[in-house]
Amino acid sequence: MTQHSFQTEVTQLLQLMIHSLYSEREIFLRELVSNASDACDRLRFLGLTQPELLAGAGDLRVTITTDPEARTLTISDNGIGLTEAEAVEHLGTIAKSGTKAFLEKLSGDQAKDSRLIGQFGVGFYSAFMVAHRVVVESRSAQAEAGAGVRWESSGDGNFATETITREERGTSITLHLKDDATDFAQNWKLRELIKKYSDYVTYPVMLPKYVSDEDRAKGVIGELEQVNAGVPLWTRPKDEITEEQYRDFYRSACKMWDEPATRLHFHVEGMLSFTALIFVPGQRPMDLFDRDRRGLHLYVRRVFVMDDCKDLLPDYLRFVRGIVDSDDLPLNVSREMLQQQDTVAKLRKQLVKRILDHLHKLAASEDEKERAAFAGIDRSFGTILREGLVTDPEQRERLAKVTRYRSTWTVGTPAEGETRPETTGLEDYLKRMPEGQDKIYFALAGSLDAAKSSPHLEAFAKKGYEVLFWVDPVDEWVVSHLTEFEKKPLANVATAAADLASEDEKKALEEQAKSFEGFLGFCKTALGEGVKDVRLTNRLTDSPCVLVEEAGGMGAQFEEMMRRMGQPVPPRQRALELNAEHPLIARLQALHAADAADSRLPGYVTVLRDQALLAEGGQLEDAAGFARRVQELMAKAIA
Predict the structure, then answer these.
(1) Of 138, 147, 146, the residue nearest 169 (C-alpha)
(2) Cα distance between residue 464 and residue 493, in whole Å
(3) Which of 89, 139, 362, 569 lies in the 20 to 30 Å Cα band around 122?
């Protein structure tokens, strides 16, 4: 045997692995199986031009055997193999580049993150996390049987090599397991780990069938059987995959039990190469708001890397399930290092674009089944999607085409033979806009019922303008970010009604206000700080009054959000606008003109303001006072 010393950095690395990297040491099996698969890949590639290299040894495969009594685990492959010189070079030194950078990463909290293993070509050394001695026997496919090599080390800074005779090409790595790692010699444990980490390795991963202790004692050896699934579903042509296979994969790989609403299966090649199989659930997942359980499963060249990779999708797509298999990321990249990978940012951009485009395609489809699928997605995840209008400016235009809302048109009465969807998109809204309308109008409210009954709608109904109902808490957040769509500005009906009046209507209102000047001043004095102003309006047709938010003021939804978070809510300063044509306002003005000192007037005006607040779904600060005043009015009316 010839004695060698490890490269200095390898010695440091081995010490770190043996003494520090124990948080997920089961990862060693994935690394060694992945290396064996790579050896088979290399031989298959060389075999394209040198077919004689593939002769003998059967089909390419990875075989794992154990001896629980001897406490050994052996991973074998019939791939490219190693010469003695290659064994010294590749097993005695870390990959040519990245050595120092890798060691620098293994510091502080990251020193216990075994997901770093493999990033710089050090996957083989992970064997020393579970083994006190490692023996490698190999023969290159390009060498004779007598030119095999045995490599052996106890991880103590030295290793030895010798020439051996090996009839078959390929490599066998035998791990003599530590006392606290003997469970890795158990067949059931290895099956579990292979299914978890290496289920989609291209080549068969073979294990002996289960043999009872009694039969084992008799010398019975289990026949080898393939444990891994082999060719991943996502790498197969779509026309060869059945709906049932897609559904089974969704339930098993994504841990879901419902029927997916839709799916995307695509492959991208070019500057970025990856495959994705993505599902949108048919129902809200139970862990939708669990921040530790969201994201896609990440594979690198069909080798499992991590569950719930949050960096691949933005938070507003947290309901999406599936896998991404990248050809460009380093194997076993850590969660921390994902954020520093430029490839991840490019992957994320591509995934988001394709998911949103797919949803838009469903929404605009002429196929009834696809439209129904999108309607279900919108009901379950529409409010979550709208978060992206705020948090993802780059995709705001795409998101604006996907998001859906109820409106005065969707809740209106359809004509005979006409059917209307439950919600509408901004693109369809624009198609229905009458001539002369130059803005997209929306109403903010705490509920759909409050939005439908809002007095603010009256002026727009008179003009025949459709109004979108934004009734979810996220919508008020969206308002300040989604300001236009296809060059049409979005406007809140609470502040935009004045723009609807013609110049003649504005002049007529100014003249009418002169005769109401005394009454308007009285109302403002009676209400005090409860309102910022009291004025006449021509925005109303049926209601006597309405509270109007001044430009830039806080909306009711945002106010409620602050209240729920325990934040102090500043008073909302709004104007009370009166409909001079309404009989109630006319009678109150006449009563004031007859006797401005009438003691009943302050109570009447206060009730007027309170009912305007209730009409928009607001909350009264003095609900008991309002009830008392209404009771007094009722008592007088009955008398």
Answers:
(1) 138
(2) 14
(3) 139
Distance between CA atoms of residues 373 and 358, nearest Å? 12
Q: Is residue 388 part of a domain?
A: no
Mean pLDDT of 438-448: 91
pLDDT of residue 356: 97
Q: Which residue has the tokens 């003691």?
A: 599
How many C-alpha atoms does 130 have within 13 Å on its Cβ side?
25
Q: How confident is the model over 79-96, as a mean pLDDT?
A: 78
Q: Examine the domain organization and report whether 569 and 505 are in the same domain.
A: yes
Q: How many domains does the chain have?
A: 4
How does residue 193 score in pLDDT terms, banded at 50, 70 and 90? very high
Tell me what pLDDT residue 121 has: 44
CA distance between the termini of the chain: 117
Return the SS3 of 25. coil
What's this model's pTM, rounded to 2 decimal places? 0.71
d(CA 14, CA 19): 8
* Average pLDDT score over residue span 530-547: 89
Cα Rg, the chain, nearest whole Å: 36
With CA atoms as reference, report the closest residue to 401 among 371, 438, 437, 358. 358
Task: Give the residue ranges of DSSP H helices in 325-464.
Answer: 335-338, 342-364, 368-385, 388-391, 396-402, 426-432, 448-452, 458-463
Assess if residue 197 is contained within a domain. Answer: yes
Q: Of residues 96 and 207, which shows the higher confidence score?
A: 207
The residues pairing with 275 across neighbouring beta strands, listed in sequence order, are: 267, 325
Asked if residue 201 and residue 163 are part of one domain, the reply reads: yes
The pair of structure tokens assigned to 241 is 């995959």
Helices (H) and strands (E) in the chain, counts: 23, 22
Query: At residue 65, does pLDDT exceed 90?
Result: yes
Residues 506 and 618 in one domain: yes
Q: Which of 26-35, 143-152, 506-515, 571-580 has the highest mean pLDDT?
A: 143-152
| Band of pLDDT at residue 381, cut at 50, 70 and 90 | very high
Query: What is the mean predicted confidence (pLDDT) over 616-636?
Result: 84
DSSP codes, 277-292 = EEEE-SS--TTTT-TT
Range of the domain at 625: 501-638
> Quick one: average pLDDT of 320-339?
76
Q: In what order do the strands lie in the sheet with 533-536?
A: 533-536, 574-578, 545-549
Q: How far is CA 509 from CA 504, 537, 585, in A?
A: 9, 7, 15
Task: Using the 3D structure, point to which of 498, 526, 553 is the last residue of a domain.
Answer: 498
Q: What are phi and psi of 404, to 5 degrees?
A: -130, 150
Alpha-carbon distance of 2 to 148, in angstroms, equals 14
Q: How confident is the model at residue 120 (pLDDT cuts 50, 70, 90)?
A: very low
- Cβ proximity of 558 and 476 under 8 Å: yes
